[in-house]
Amino acid sequence: MKQTTETRKIVRRWRLCACMLLMAGGLLSAARAPANEPATAGELKGVDQDVQALKKQLIDLNRDLFRLEEELLYPASTQVAVFLSVDVGTFFALDSVTLKLDDKEVTNYLYTEREVKALHRGGVQKLYLGNLKAGEHEIVATFVGKGPHERDYRRGTTIKFEKTLGAKYVELRISDREASLQPEFVVRQWE
Amino acid sequence: MQRRNYYARARARAILETLAIFVAVAAGVLAWPLVSRAAPANGSAAPDFALKSTDGQNLRLSEYRGDIVVLTFWASWCGPCRETLAQLNQLPAGDAGPVVLGVNVEGDAGRAASVVASLGLDYPTLVDTRQAVGRLYDVERLPLTLLLDRDGVVQATWSAKEQPGESLARRIEELNP
């Protein structure tokens, strides 16, 4: 876990260096222009276009580095990601989710009011991203919050899955079961 | 001839030893961040966390980006902590003042709430039930008070008997445009 953080830090440092190099390049090219004569509208437009191009390059570079970071830290052959989404969710006010992977706690996430609102608006949260070797594994998700009639609610869901060579994605979805007026916790898997 | 060989071997050994020392120092420097753990230093970003407050609300530090934040770690048994908590309660509220967040490191919500009530604290008090945030900030001496700028970067730190007092008010004024 600590090594992962360190690798991330190194990639971030590289990203920062690359950004600084690009910015320095932009500044140097701007400095090459003669400074004594007042800039015409055409020249200003040219500078503006250069700045925009530089910004685009920065965004592209950042995206590529982000992909590289993900590929380095979580190769597809071992990658496992767990997502959380809420569909309606009127019978359950989410407070926290604890995730155990093969009996080891990997995440304990506490939700603020703003985060719960974002989930209700259709947001999908990446709750966990890690590496697992091929074979059978088990995830236990414990949802804590307020259920119907403001009662404290705690519910666990167990998912057993087979990790193959490809990346594994698991979605935990909180939805409403209208018939029983109770929340429902649905698990979906993707390869 | 034998003497020349001896000198050549000695030189080679000296070069090897120098290289070995250099490699060991480089490895030590590279491995230091993996083995060391220290409180966030001034100028570094304050680690993010979410905790439950004594009134049951969940609060996340990163949601206060854009505000000046004063973060203070305390425990009910710590005398100087009470003094710091009372001082922070005197800071101006609203747009002019910073957001103050108290973090009780004992993990006992009941005890934390009773201190909050006895001191009449107006700012939220978070309870570090698992002591995870205390470890994250490497809290060794109490109280520990940190001043964070609008980008969540630590600008100043006060710990143990060192009370923030006027120095905190001055630093807040400097951060306000």
How would you portray this structure in words?
The complex is a heterodimer of chains A (191) and B (177). By secondary structure, chain A is of the alpha+beta class. Chain A has two domains: 2-73; 79-190, Immunoglobulin-like, CATH 2.60.40. In chain A, 37% of the residues lie in helices and 39% in strands. Chain A has three helices and eight strands, in the order H-H-E-E-E-H-E-E-E-E-E. Chain A has helices spanning 2-31, 41-73, 113-120; strands at residues 79-86, 93-101, 104-110, 125-131, 135-146, 152-163, 168-177, 182-190. A four-stranded mixed beta sheet of chain A has the order 4-1-7-8, with no helix packed on it. In chain A, a hairpin with a 4-residue loop joins strand 7 and strand 8. In chain A, helix 1 (2-31) runs antiparallel to helix 2 (41-73). The two termini of chain A are 24 Å apart. The mean pLDDT of chain A is 84. With 177 residues, chain B is an alpha/beta fold. Chain B has two domains: 1-36; 50-175, Glutaredoxin. Chain B has five helices and seven strands. The longest helix of chain B has 34 residues, at 2-35. Chain B starts with a helix and ends with a helix. In chain B, 27% of the residues are buried. The interface between A and B is medium-sized, with 14 and 11 residues.
Please describe the structure with a list of short key phrases separated by commas or semicolons.
heterodimer, A: 191 residues, alpha+beta, Immunoglobulin-like, 2 domains, 4-stranded mixed beta sheet, 4-stranded antiparallel beta sheet, 39% strand, B: 177 residues, alpha/beta, Glutaredoxin, 7-stranded mixed beta sheet, 7 strands, 41% helix
Brief sketch in words of this structure:
The complex is a heterodimer of chains A (191) and B (177). Chain A has 191 residues and is of the alpha+beta class. Chain A has helices at 2-31, 41-73, 113-120, and strands spanning 79-86, 93-101, 104-110, 125-131, 135-146, 152-163, 168-177, 182-190.
